[in-house]
Amino acid sequence: MYDPVQTMVEKMCSRSLYELSKKDSGEVGSISRAITTSDGAWLTRGSHSKNFSFVIRDFLTGGYLYVLHLSQRGRDKVCRVPLYDGTSKSAEGYAASKGFHYLKARGVHVEVNWQDKDSTSKVSFREAYPDEDSSKIMICGGHAARAHTNLLQKYASQKKVTKAFADNHKVAFPELFELKCQCLGKKHRNKPSCGCLTEAFIRYSRINFFSALVDADTHKDPEVFRNNLRALALHHVKDEHVWIEDGELHHCPFHSFEVCGCGKCSDEDLSRCKQRKKYSSSMVLTCPLHLALYQIECLRRADECHLYIHPELGKGHSNLPEAAHNVYIRYRSKSVQLERLHYCISTNLAVLQSATNWASEVYGSKYYWLTELYSRLNLPVTDGMLKNVESMLAVRSKSLEDQKSECKKKYRVRMKKARLEENEERKRWMKKQAFSHGYGITEEDEDAFGTEELQEPVQESSSVLRARAVLRTANLLVTATEEDF
Fold first, then answer.
1. Percent of the residues in the chain that have a pLDDT greater than 90, as a whole number
2. Considering the domain 2-138+317-364, what is its CATH architecture?
3. Are β-strands 64-71 and 110-115 bridged in parallel, bridged antiparallel, or unpaired?
4. pTM, 2 dp
5. Burial code of 65-78, b = ≥16 C-beta within 10 A, e = fewer?
6. Confidence check: pLDDT of 3 > 90
């Protein structure tokens, strides 16, 4: 199956390049102004993966422009790509270099490439397209929001900063090294109302960050994103919504001055609401250290606004290759270390499946890669198979259209909110429990179960002590009331 499947993938990439060449040279998305998105995936679990795939796709149409699979194991003499001699960590940079040089050799000028920021393919892209003015690297908005959240979670655990960190930001925050968390030394730290970087505030901040991206996307202006983040960091987070800067009056651009007080009016009915009240921030940072850290993070992202918002495309994403990775694992297991031949065939089948929408637009609504594969393998394509394929494509098309409806979108939002609420309830329930999981007798066991039961007259083995700890935990579960659950 290797040659027919590999030929179909190469044919798909060649057709995508041909579709680029048919467009006018000055049009966005043409071969001289290509908009691409790229990403790699290690398709084996663990710290050392022997299989890797890298793809480059057309951002506007979804067609594959380049596909490369790298494997470190295999004895077959069929695969056209040799075994990869490098390390797993270097695989993405190597594959990206091959891919972008492949496009450049075929006359493709990439004007914008959307990717995640934690990728090593940036250097490889610059090897093929060194001019930063004509070839830009743009960052996926979803990855940026996630990185923003992860960094705030790291800052939340800090009670003070290192001298090296303070020296890097001493121009804008000269007293940063002297600041300390206001919860430092307190028994109960980071309560919801303490004014530090709590879990609730971090979720709130991620929503604000993505809302600033969406607002800038409507204007197609990076400066809008920059101004929104600066307003969030310098004023909104301190519950200041009107301020004077450079002698001019400014206000928060992403919300109104008044909101509904009864909780029943929508934004359209706000003018008729009789219980309107002044807008106030639901999450306010009062801790001087965490306020400074939040401002440092937001101002840094604001200075990089040109990486997230394109003047013509607005905000972008790397969803196409990311979504394809989810299709790959349906055709192969990530928990199995496959040989090169098996890996290349199974992953290529998933590549063909993930491009079904693009293929239906280019080859026709009745095209499906499986029927072409049967023909290339000299297997009979029966009428029943064609009917099944036609029925499957119709169901798939209808399902995709239903997912775009407002009802389905609201349903996904409700389910996501329900999952978050359920997780919070589970955390609250666990905090109320009087037992903790452990092995042996520790100080925590004495605090949880009392000292009377732990006073043994003779020395006992570690296995006996572990058994006693398990029994005490079981007794607590047996005596728990219905309200505990």
1. 53
2. 2-Layer Sandwich (3.30)
3. unpaired
4. 0.80
5. bbbbbbbbebeeee
6. yes
pLDDT digit string (tens) for 122-178? 899 999 999 999 999 999 999 999 999 999 999 998 889 999 999 999 999 999 999
Structure tokens at 210: 């993505």
Tens of pLDDT, residue by residue over 175-204, are 999 998 888 777 666 666 687 888 889 988
What b-and-e string marks burial along 432-450, b requiring 16 or more CB atoms within 10 Å of the CB?
A: eeebeeeeebeeebeebbe
- Give the contacts of 223 (CB within 8 A, at least 6 positions apart): 305
pLDDT digits (tens, 9 = 90+) for 250-297: 888 877 777 777 766 766 666 677 777 788 888 888 999 999 999 999
Q: How far apart are CA 111 and CA 120, in angstroms?
A: 19
Half-sphere exposure of residue 353: CA atoms within 13 angstroms, side-chain side? 18
Contacts of 339 (CB under 8 A, 6+ apart): 71, 73, 74, 75, 76
What are the Cα distances from residue 146, in Å, to 141, 207, 208? 9, 11, 12
Secondary structure (H, E, C), the chain? CHHHHHHHHHHHHHHHHHHHHHCCCCCCCCCCCEEEEEEEEECCCCCCCCEEEEEEEECCCCCEEEEEEEECCCCCCCCCCCCCCCCCCCHHHHHHHHHHHHHHHCCCCEEEEEECCCCCHHHHHHHHCCCCCCCEEEECHHHHHHHHHHHHHHHHCCCCCCHHHHHHCCCCCCCHHHCCCCCCCCCCCCCCCCCCCCHHHHHHHHHHHHHHHHHHHHHCCHHHHHHHHHHHHHCHHHCCCEEEECCEEEECCCCCCEECCCCCCCCCCHHHCCCCEECCCCCCCCCHHHHHHHHHHHHHHHHCHHHCEECCCEECCCHHHHHHHHHHHHHCCCCCCCCHHHHHHHHHHHHHHHCHHHHHHHHCCCCCHHHHHHHHCCCCCCHHHHHHHHHHHHHHHHHHHHHCCHHHHHHHHHHHHHHHHHHHHHHHHHHHCCCCCCCCCCHHHHHHHCCCCCCCCCCCCHHHHHHHHHHHHHHHHHCCCHHHC
Our CA dihedral for 290, 293, 297, 303, rounded to 10 degrees, sits at 130
d(CA 270, CA 263): 10
- Beta-strand relationship, 309-310 and 314-315: antiparallel
